[in-house]
Structures are given as C-alpha cells and as structure tokens.
Amino acid sequence: MSAVTPIPVETYKVGFIGAGKMAESIARGVVKSGVLPASRITTAHKGVRKTVFQSFGVDVAETNNQVVETSDVVIFSVKPQVVKDAILQLRPVLSEKKLLVSVVAGVKLKDLQEWAGHDRFIRVMPNTPSAVGQGASVMSLGAGATQEDGEIIAKLFGAVGKTWKADEKLFDAVTGLSGSGPAYIFLLIEALADGGVAAGLPRELALGLASQTVLGAASMATETGKHPGQLKDDVTSPGGTTIAGVHELEKSGFRGILMNAVVAAAKRSRELSQN
Questions:
Q1: Is 139 a known ligand-binding residue?
Q2: Contact 159, 210 (CB under 8 A)
Q3: 17 in a known ligand binding site
C-alpha cells in the first residue's frame, strides 16, 4: 500500500453515514466534551432526524456522497442489512485518504474492506450507555489503519465512555459481555427493585435505590482498582445481612447464570456474523 495520508488532527471533519441513535449519541458526546466542534460534523437525512442533529449544531447534507466528500473520517452507523449497499454505493468516493469506521454489529472487517476497496478501516463496537456518556467501546484496526488513526478514533469514542483495543476475533465475546450486558443489568435493577417492594419499600424509592446502588457499585469497581471480590468482602461482615443475601445468590447459581448469559449471547453473535 502507498504511504497513508495522515488525518489532520487539528482540523479533521467527521461524517456519519446513518443518522440514528448511535450516531447521535457519538456526535453529542464529541461536541459536549469539546473533542470536536459541531461545525466539523456532518450527516445526511431529510426527515425528523435532520432536526435532531441540527438542534446541536451538526451540519446536515442532502446526500451521503456530500457527507463523504466533506469528511476525513467517515463513520458507518447503519443497520447491518444495509451496510453493504451503503458502502458499495459510496465506493467511488471512499479513497484511502479517508479513514473509514464501522459501528455496525456483526459485520467483519474483511467484508467492510472488500466493499470499500481498501483496508484503512477501523471497526468499533460501542454499547447503548454511550447515549449517557458511559459507553464501553472496543476497537479493532484494519491493516491499512495507522496507529495515529487509532488514536483519533479512541479519542472520539472516549467522548462517550471508555475505549479498549482488541483483536477482532474477540468481538463476539465482546458482544456477549458489553454489547448485551446492559440488558442483564437492567434486569438486575428491576429485580432488586422488586425485592425492595417485596420487603416493604414503595416502588419509586425501591427503583431509585436499586439504580443508584448499581451505579455506585460499578463506580467503585472502576475507580478503586480493587478486585470485585475484595469489594464484596469489604461489605460482607461476619454473620451479617449481606452474607445472608450472598448465600441465597450462591444457592441459586447467580454467578453461573450470568456467565451462561454472556456465553450464550457470544455464541448467538457468532452465528449471526456467519450468516
């Protein structure tokens, strides 16, 4: 491959192909954090989504071709079933000067690169908490993407949470854990709240306590650097209330159930990506 044209770090523009919720979350986060001004972000849409993006200053073009032509970094944020057509239609303007990014679930780099005609591509797997700036995003670089390209994308997605780099072969497991994981936690919050109601709490108080407790525990796990087993031990005094609850969870196979959920979702992701 010929020498890669560097993306101008101080002035680069980002274009979104697809103006859905994920594109909106990333764009809002990038603007809010000051990583990029809204004036350097473009997407294309003619309906209600146009107004949504314009409301926080993003330029909305008439066509996807215009988005690509004015952008240095092009992020594909469309449904899996339409990404191939979207890339093939834009292929004539997807030169190697442009860094291409996909946040499309289940579509492999080798296919993305083949459709685009080059391998300056980065695949990113964000999750839905990106919408509130607490996303977990994992990225894998195509052969033509430089380390500098990776740093630009890590900074962009860092605006909506935390980012990690990993080999693409791990992405099905990533899907099972961080991609599907928010749903498991929502179930956990709902169940904790139901337990509070069963123990006599008003519903609104139980739900508030359950949500904040999960948020607080997650924050302790990420910010203290302690192993979660140590944090659990710290709150579990001899013969106390917490160990009584933990005992019940262990009797019901709580850990095994969560492990099985991650493995089952990862297996399903593998099946879907092979279709």
A1: no
A2: no
A3: yes
